[in-house]
Amino acid sequence: MKTKITAVTLAFATALTACAPQQTGGTAGAWPRKGKPITLIVGFAPGAAVDAAARVIAPVLEKELGTNVEVLNKPGAGGQIGYTALTNAKPDGYTIGATGSPSVVVSPLDPSRGATYTRASFLPLGMQVLDPMLIGVAPGSPYTTLKDLIEAVKKKPKSVTVPTTGVQTGEHFALADIQQRTGAQFAPVHFSEGASQAIAAFLGKHVNAYVGNVSDVRDLVTQGKIKVLGVMSGERSPFLPDAPTFAEQGYQIEAATARGYSAPAGLPADVQKKIESALGKAIEDPAVVAKLKNLGLATVYKSGPQYTTYWQEQESTFKNALPLVRNEG
Q1: Fewest CB atoms within 10 A around its CB: which of 8, 67, 110, 217?
Q2: Residue 70 region, left (φ>0) first, then alpha (ψ -120 to 50), else beta?
């Protein structure tokens, strides 16, 4: 016997559908599954500041989320290998990643990088650290002040080599900013696996100066292995109180590396909310803040939406400097 489908029948079925609970990807109640770990991808080698911050936060995240958080290093291409792995992962909450700017912001903006991801491939979850840049030289260097160094490079462009952690990373953009504002054209030497390579090159006297983050050199300053000529921040770093800022010396230049955490886009909203909440608690945990301080890292927490806005602002800034950085790559 065939059932006759009438307009009334269809209308009734439609009404039932409208009244039924809608699927929103609601998985947070069962997430994370017992015994299933979360992988935290770091696109730089062990020992770098971004790796250190991730390893400090992981145990607290484990406590908040009730499952293991395993840090997985995927270094190379200035973070791009790690970002590719992150954005290719299934957006189910079991893979998150450390994201540092400018590398994560800039790599998809430059077609020559061949990035398979875009800004829309990431879901920012929270920012943890803002780490100012600086420039320094070996204690026996002939350059005793920032002005000495800049004037020497202006007179003889590309006469001073400096390491970076890769093409279009924070150090690379800091050098481009210095060039735009002073005319001093340094010669960057790129090391794609992180600060440990760059520091080794500096200590081995394979480069003439060092451009990097405050956290990279605090111990080296204590050991007398580097003389900081200037910090690129609005005020002196509490970790290097004796080091003058660029502004104090007449150069209005500020640069810093922002480090946070993101998930692949498409994460269910309820899982996103659960991870963001856990991250916020972990980032602002007093023990985590204290451990980062011991590493020379200042905690500057931004929530997921705040981190998203900051990311968008940085994108506009770096777009303007990208042509110069590409020419100096």
Answers
A1: 8
A2: beta
